[in-house]
Amino acid sequence: MVKVGEQLVLWLEQRLPLTAGFWLYVPETNTWRLVVVAPQVREQGTLKIYQEAQRALMQFKNHERQNADLPFSLPDVYAIDDRQQLVGTLRTLAERQGRSTDLRVSRTTANGHFIEDAYIYTT
What we know:
By secondary structure, the chain is an alpha+beta fold. The protein has helices at 2-15, 40-44, 47-64, 85-97, and strands spanning 20-26, 31-37, 77-80, 101-110, 113-122. The chain has one domain (2-122).
């Protein structure tokens, strides 16, 4: 899951102006979301991000993974605006650790928000 998520974030970064990408655990649904953060969401919406993500996932499945099942699908990808409070919270946590890439944070609080679990590719 982590490796394919990283590949998707890198794919999207080459095509769109992303400012962050991370996995976020959602305890209420016991699921993980791959969150991609882009300023364009604010003005243009999420459609382009989801189209590119779907294109990448199809290519990963058909070529790189030799038709193997991927560990996640498009409904697990969540595009948000870079002004979301969640993004600021994860940036604060990354700064505390002195890192902004490849960082796992678990059961911690920043800016008054509790993060159950997250894996940050980039903030």
